[in-house]
Amino acid sequence: MSGKRYAVGGAFFMAILVLPPVLRWMESSMIGVMLGQIPVLVVAGWLFGFALPRRFIEWLNCWNENGLPGLLLAISVLTFWLLPRSVDASLNEPLLRLAKWMMLPLLVGMPLSLSWKRLHPIARGIVHTNAISMLVVMGWLYLSVPVRVCNSYLLSQQNALGRMMIALAIVLAAFWSLRLFVATTPNEPTTR
Amino acid sequence: MEANVRKMTALYMFVSGIAILLMMVLGLLMLLAQGKMIPLGQDTFYEMMTAHGTFMVGAAAFAASAVMWYFLRQYVRLSFPIFVTHFVLFLTGAVMTAISIFVFRFAGAWTFLYPLPAMSAGMWGKTGASLYLIGMLLIGVSFLLLYLDTSRAIIREYGSLGHGLGWPQILGKVKGYGPPPTVVASTMVSIVNLVSLTVGASVLVMSLINLFQPSIEMDPLLAKNLIYAFGHIFANSVIYMGVIVVYEILPKYTNRPWKSYKIFLIAWNMSTLFTIIVYPHHLLMDFVMPKWMLIIGQVFSYLNGLPVLVVTAFGALMIVYRSGIEWDMASSFIFLSMFGWVAGVIPAIADATIVINHVMHNTKWVPGHFHMYMGVGAVSMLFGFMYYFIRGNERKIGYADMVSFWVYTVFFLSLCGTFLLSGKVSAPRRWAVHFPEWVPYDRMGAVFAVVIIAAVTVFLYRFFVSVIIVQAKQNIEVGPRA
Ligand code: HEM
Fold first, then answer.
1. Among A140, A147, A158, A187, which would you mutate to test the B interface (most chain B Cβ atoms within 10 Å of its Cβ)?
2. pTM to 2 decimals?
3. What residues make up the domain containing A66?
4. Residue-wise pLDDT tens digits, A173-184
């Protein structure tokens, strides 16, 4: 697929997200924001990553040894936007909403897509195992924190999100483990 | 490179050996205290118990992982930097846990059962508990790195973990034998420990959060499930790593190959699954557990160890039978370990039966079974490996060693006997203070422990002088991939 198509794909995802009914529907629930909007914005950025010109990617690669800087950048920015304070702010303050809509695709999705293949398989394994165990921890937190962490959502929403996160951890664990059992061709980092 | 690998492996074995010896001394002190022969405060007893449990399981797993790594690298391309990182991270975590126990007086046992770390009744503070939990987390990460590397290397060489477990041969798609037994065992251990460490990381982080923010509580039953899923699988994996020694050494000694035939592969596949799902046998007393989980715990405990145990014990007997094998220290330890494994499983299976468990659980019967399984089974495999490692450059292995071997065998079994008998007279496990009726067994145990410690000192001394002081003449394991 050509780079342009990826760019169109990414833009398409973002366009769908901003459609007023979709936006309202997603932002009306905590699950919608945390497990709908944020991941889709990241996926859009991931697709944009494929659309970048080759020369630019090569230049970026000089700054992205083994994909680790890209991964760190993505994780740090994602962490910020997962904080309850940031979730609230992105719903109530237009400037921060804009920042979130720019940063999640450009500073999370895109660095991830540029770094993922360059990461050593062990680093990828760490991301997988950590994602599973920390999703469980976050799910448990949302279930057991006795107060509302977001002003915008009720405790019941928070609990529902907790349950979803634990379910998602189980699904991801099953999916990633199954993949290890399916015969593949070896998957080493591209340029090392 | 070969020299570095040998040096690093020797370092692993030496550090673990010293840790095991020191923890045996703590075990002796605990027995002396229970036998009222020394005045040891109850708080000190529980600190020692925590250290003994943590470092015995930790050191045995650490050494066993080195054994697995050492042999597995003959077949797949493993990363040496990861081997070194594992060493450094593990030691950092171990030092943190040691500080938490001996400086900050953490004494919540190696099972860190929720909510004990946060509710010490004034015995230790947040610093102690958090240092312990973070230390455990680091140890977990160090093992995680190693297993990610072994899984990666196995997938790269064989295509998938399923292939590493010999699925194509089991399903009849490929004729002939499966991957070498070492690869099969390493695949199994990598799988079960990736599961256990992921679960362990979750529950450790939850415990840490609860420690600093007590209003965020965990469901205690969920916590117990997660902790035992982690602890059981991890402790169990020690023997599955150690058994690689049997698969590697016996063929060399007997000049007969050990092949992965179909039954062997099926057995390892069964144990892979069962090891992950049997942990509820630690919760048989928790009446609120769903009944089906307890039944799984009982039924699969019967099935869990058996397949691998049977194919290995039977295979070992077959390969040795009329082979004219030379009985030196390494091969003797290997044989002892098979015996310890088989014998240790019997009281374990008895205890995994729900009706028996209601009587025996939390008595010293339980340490009785796992000391046999770990001490005579797993740890013998490690000593066997050490002697194999120094083969050729051993400095005068002689009577002292052989006598120590027999002393170790007889007295460790006797020590386990005193634990089992204490269980029979209803001595609970984990009690610092014993009733007079239980004391004779503790005193007998203490005497046996002294002798065991002397024997282990001989083994470690021999290893030390043969490998560290004398710059060993290279006697290198070179496989097709090394
Ligand atoms: C000289 C050898 C040893 C002696 C004297 C000894 C002694 C003891 C004693 C007295 C206890 C406490 C029992 C109770 O609950 O009252 C104990 C517990 C334990 N031992 Fe040993 N032990 C020895 C070797 C080993 C070995 C080789 C291992 C494993 C590799 C091991 C692993 C454990 C574990 C995991 C516990 C449970 C701690 C707990 O309940 O939290 N021990 N040992």
1. A140
2. 0.91
3. 3-181
4. 999 988 888 866
